[in-house]
Amino acid sequence: MSSGKSRTQDFRPTQDPGSPGDPFPENHPAARRQSRIIIVSDARLYREGLALSLASIDRVAVVGIADTLASALTCIEENSPDVALLDIVMPEALTLPDAVAAARARVKIVAFSVAETEDEICACAEAGIAGYVSRNGSKEDLVAAVENALRGEVVCSARMAASLFRRLAVRVRTTRQPGPEAMLTSREHDIVALIDGGLSNKEIARQLKISTPTVKNHVHNILEKLQVRRRGAAAAVLREAAVARATLRPPPRRQELSEGAAPALADR
After folding, report:
1. pTM here?
2. Cα separation of 32 and 246, whole Å?
3. Domains of the chain
4. 182 with 152: CB under 8 angstroms?
5. How many CB atoms are located within 10 Å of the residue 102 CB?
6. b/e per residue, 180-209, with b = 16+ CB within 10 A?
7. For residue 170, what are the contacts with CB-CB under 8 A and spacing of at least 6?
8. DSSP conformation class of 14
9. Above 60 in pLDDT, residue 84?
């Protein structure tokens, strides 16, 4: 339903949505809302319909809408919202928290249209989403999620809380288990690094200023400790262990969201 053109725009609903015209006067209750929000969705009907619907609630003020993740960053920069309501169905929606964090923007991300499954809720939590509203959630649920996020709170079902606890326990156990690199001595690490660089035993001996038989003994011990048969396989085991460790760290930005949008926001 998107126009196909990336855009961001201010949104200030009129008293009569059916006839565009004057915005709310300054003394109207809608002009004194507490929580400034933007709406991010690639479906025009969703973003504009939601903005008009929220106009009847005086605790929030819709200050902008965006139809792409890149334009959302621009909208955040221009409007300084408290919360960004994010349509989770958008492609790469979960990259927005990473981009916001990289830009050091002080805005909470609340996802809507979330399928209340373990995988999707946990994915939102791991991405840094501050709150969510399920596909069956109401307008009041959305406002409550915004206010909870601003208080640093999130509401989820007991079943989803149990799922998050299980995921956390698995991650902690995984990080506590010693990797294959912990089995090797410092000298053996040096030898594996040189093996990975394509050096022969003789070349390694010259590099480390030790005898070739000593290198062979080290290689034999390395293969036994890592339970592999070939020198190259030992180097591969350590490379794979390094990749596995990296996946347990907070994920980097998974996609460049715009041409210079995030750096521009970071300069604020």
Report:
1. 0.56
2. 46
3. 8-169 (3.40.50.2300), 180-247 (1.10.10.10)
4. no
5. 16
6. beeebeeebeebbebbeeebebeebbeebe
7. none
8. B
9. yes
Nearest to 39 by CA among 53, 28, 25: 53
Helices (H), the chain: 44-54, 69-79, 96-102, 118-127, 139-150, 158-176, 186-196, 201-208, 212-226, 231-247, 261-266
The CA distance from 225 to 230, in Å, is 12
Instruction: List all residues 6 or more positions away from 63 whose beta carbon is below 8 Å from its beta carbon.
Output: 10, 11, 12, 36, 37, 38, 79, 81
In one-letter notation, the amino acid at residue 236 is A
111 neighbors 132 (Cβ within 8 angstroms)? yes
What would the mean pLDDT of 174-187 be, rounded to a whole number? Answer: 71
Comparing 91 with 182, the larger pLDDT belongs to: 91
Decide if 85 contacts 104 (C-beta within 8 A): no
Specify the 3-state DSSP secondary structure of 112: strand
Is 83 in a helix, a strand, or coil? strand
Q: What is the chain's length?
A: 268
> What radius of gyration do the chain's Cα atoms show?
26
Q: Are strands 60-66 and 8-9 parallel, antiparallel or unpaired?
A: antiparallel
Burial class (CB in 10 A: 0-12, 13-18, 19+), 60: buried
Edge-to-edge strands, sheet with 60-66: 8-9, 60-66, 35-40, 83-87, 108-114, 131-134
Residue corresponding to tokens 């400034």: 36
Cα separation, 229 vs 267, whole angstroms: 53
pLDDT tens, 7-25? 555 554 433 333 333 333 4
